[in-house]
Amino acid sequence: MKISYRIFALVILLLSLGAASQVLAQAPLVITNPTAATVWETGSTYTVTWTGGLPGWFVNISLGGVAPWAVVDLIGVGIPNNGSVSYTVPLTVPAGGYLVYIENVAQTSWHYGAEFVINEGTVAAEPTTWAGIKALYR
Fold it and tell me: I need a surface site. Which of 57, 58, 111, 132 has the fewest CB within 10 A?
């Protein structure tokens, strides 16, 4: 019985070392877009990209205000760690400095992206004349 216990203990040790090496070998999560040179506009759609983590992970991504730091909007919650997500900036987001924050749902890996700018987008004015309204339906 001692031999089987030792074999069992050795197998458990090897499995735990394998799991630990997988965690140690993973690349950290890193936001790759937006960058510091990025300018977004409210009402427009953009692609947030990142690298790292493990393929089986799920991640949370949020838009954060810089001054003061606060979560402004949730970009994705519990989404697959596939490296990109499409995001439409709400019209209610004030112009200013922002960053994108990513974390795995277990909160063992996270990253703050570079600070970038969001400007107010231009919204097309609604037609105020009968000719303008008819033009919409042609």
Answer: 132
